[in-house]
Amino acid sequence: MNKKFLLLLTTMVFSINAIAQTFTLKGKVTDEEQNPVELATVSCLKQGKVAMTSLKGEFSITLQSADSVAVQFSMIGYKTKTRVLRNPRGIQTLQIVLYEDNRTLSEVSVTGQKIQTGQTQELKTEQLKSMPSASGNAVEELIQSQAGVSTHSELSSQYNVRGGSFDENSVYINDVEVYRPFLVRSGQQEGLSVINPDMVEKIGFSTGGYEAKYGDKMSSALDITYKKPKNLEATLSASLLGASAYIGLANKKVAWSNGIRYKTNKYLLGSLDTDGEYEPTFLDYQTYLSYRPNKRWTIDFIGNISDNHYDFYPENRETKFGTMENVKSFKVYFDGNEKDLFRTYFGTLSITRHFGDSTSVSLIGSAFSTKEQEKYDIQGQYWLNQTETSENLGVGTYFEHTRNYLKADVASLKLMLRHKTKRHNIEGGMTIKSERIRENSTEYEMRDSAGYSIPHTGNDLYMIYSLRANNRLKATRVEGYIQDSYRFRSSGEHTMFTLNYGIRFSNWSFNKETIVSPRISLAVIPAFSHDVTLRFATGLYYQAPFYKELRDTSTVNGVTMAKLNRKIKSQRSIHFITAFDYRFKLNNRPFKFTAEAYYKALGNLVPYSVNNVKVVYYGDNECTGHAAGLDLKLFGEFVPGTDSWISFSIMDTKMKLNGRNIPLPTDQRYGINMFFTDYFPGTDRWKMSLKLAYADGLPFSAPHKELERNSFRAPAYKRADIGMSYRVLNNEGTKGTGKLRNIWLGLDCLNLFGINNVNSFYWITDVTNQQYAVPNYLTGRQINARILLEF
Fold first, then answer.
1. Which domain holds residue 85?
2. CATH of the domain at 67
């Protein structure tokens, strides 16, 4: 009994002594501005105890007492702090201040030429204000003048890259993918693109071999960053083609920019062959609000409302075409009208947590909604005559009817992580998208030639073309990527390397398909010359089907039905790219020469045809093919203080369809683009900008025929635009004060040489089923006056 009592007493004494040897450490961790540092680590390494601070920066941890107890406080982006406690007892309280780690990479201002070490080139925005433009979409027109890029309509913001269709180009604004209207079929309907050039700070563009962070498209990636104004700034511009206004406001915590644009191409369309009443009105408003309450949080919001109307009341048309020895005249008298609507809403909200200057986590939510309708009933009475003999080759009537309605909603949520170290730039993201599309379309075309309906069977009456579609798409898409840019040197520290490697995956609930895309690129600045960069890139790129590629058509009794193909697979492209960059100076002015050779192995292709800017897909994976070519570009200050460039591209494309090798519909065998700026001698008030384009014509065939019958090629696209600007006022030193600092007056001559470029063809048929391709010419020579005010 006594032994048991003694044992119990001893145990109680030791327990009390053990309790007396512990203590509780409480407190709060803040930064130098007294903002709480949440999720910081509080640790005692010798005792193996760890705790985390709360969202208020508060912590509590129980430790064993000793002569000295070392407690460490750490957080990514901050300097680690250690506090040593002497004989701690009971409850101890500490107020800890962590300071940012100056050793992490911070923003650096670099002057001079930026060395491109990846597959994305950074384009300068200075040319956007003075470049002569027919479409008003300055960013896209800048893209269209780059090597490997082509366009065949000055009215369109669409572009082809290395043999790809318009739909194979991804566009991002502040890390969010943006979409274009779906039903647009001609350049004059497009209006204003989603990119507001007044709000752009940075333009990154890649024609292939791009990083894993860019989505599942096969041809190119355009990465737009909107600017955050530093103080008060504003611009006002107006011309015969429209007007725009921009204002930016800022203080220490808030940066807010707003842009509104109005465009009407009624003046330009008046130069087309088809006379009538054109009433196009395009209106766009965008806002970008950035709020940074402290160094650790940033909240960004982008909003966009776009309202585009295209109304057209045709009256008559006369087109002469052919050769000098064989001239045909096509005359039409019209009845009817066309009324189109493209209304788009887009918004994105981003919340970013900064862990110092080197690490950030962002949660980005976005929503896109479009309501589109295309309605027209147009009847034409036509005559086709041989001019030399006045022989009548065809007389007839055609009637076109369309009622197309489409409503699309896309919502996404994206979690993105960025982390920089001295040699690594790591980025990763996960995105989930909800896609909802509703389509109801009816189209038909009747042709009557000399009293016969075409096609004429003698027994049945058919339309030459009739389509019906009533489709619903409801799907979820999950995407993710991770990539790293690793910068290192050779053992001798003279050769510099930049290795970008990453992987991307995606799953779509509609067709149950999962795709995985590994991508890698390497840039080498060799020891023998730091003015040379060698670039190599390869990767697997998919064109994930969205809406247009799904529409599979089948024709029964003359009626074509369009339904969604649930067995569709992603188109595939394997890129192989070798590039050479050489930077040099001539007359003490900087220049850069770039040569880039590429080969793209194409698989699971969905064949398509192109008419103006309307892309119509077969709706099934039927082809394989390739695209190969060479792009050359010389960029520099041909005139001191101004940027100019010239690019030259050659390309060969082929796809195998139904056992035949035929060129892709966007097969442009050669293309030359030039942009040149100059000042008048002895003054910087007069400035000239010249833009030239010469591009091979694209293959085509008669409408509603098999694609493999592409036996014709359109004439080459040739165009010259020149702009003259005069600086009335120059008060550059007043920037940010709200005072008027610049006034520019401009006069542009669009299509300087009055060349009749052909963008598409209208086909007429006689009773023998002979078809004639009547060219649809683009805009003629026009003069545009403009004014620009900068505050």
1. 2-97
2. 2.60.40.10
- Measure Cα distances from 703 to 380, 590, 622, 716 in Å: 18, 49, 20, 20
Asked if residue 762 lies in contact with residue 771, where contact means CB atoms within 8 angstroms, the answer is no
The CATH number of whichever domain residue 597 belongs to comes to 2.40.170.20
Q: Residues 461-500: pLDDT tens digits?
A: 677 788 899 999 999 999 999 999 999 988 777 899 999 9
pTM: 0.85
Q: Are 71 and 134 in the same domain?
A: no
Query: Per residue, what are the HEC states of 142-190?
Result: HHHCCCCEECCCCCCCCCEECCCCHHHEEEEECCEECCCCCCCCCHHHH
Number of domains observed in the structure of the chain? 2
% helix, strand, coil for the chain, step of 5: 5, 60, 30
Same structural domain for residues 19 and 160? no
| Token pair belonging to 577 | 């790219």
126 in the same domain as 35: no
Task: Please check whether residue 556 lies inside any domain of the structure.
Answer: yes
Helices (H), 545-655: none
Distance from C-alpha of 165 to C-alpha of 611, rounded to nearest angstrom: 12
pLDDT of 118-172, one tens digit each?
Answer: 899 999 888 787 788 888 899 999 999 999 998 888 888 999 999 999 999 999 9
DSSP state string for 500-520: EEEEEEEEETTTTEEEEEEEE
Q: Is residue 116 part of a domain?
A: no
The answer to whether residue 341 is domain-embedded is: yes
User: Which residues have C-beta within 8 Å of that of residue 738, sequence separation ≥ 6?
Assistant: 232, 234, 791
DSSP state of 567: T
For residue 765, what is the DSSP state? E
Yes or no: say if 416 and 361 are a contact pair by the CB < 8 Å rule.
Answer: yes
Q: Is residue 366 part of a domain?
A: yes
What's at 97, amino acid-wise? V
Q: What are phi and psi of 167, to 5 degrees?
A: -80, -5
DSSP string, 648-663: EEEEEEEEEETTEEE-
Contact 690, 674 (CB under 8 A): yes
Same domain? 311 vs 385: yes
Q: End-to-end distance of the chain based on CA atoms, in angstroms?
A: 97
Distance CA 83, CA 69 (A): 8
Question: CA angle, corner 360, sides to 355 and 363, nearest 5?
Answer: 130
516 and 368 in one domain? yes
Assess contact for 67 and 87: CB atoms under 8 A: yes
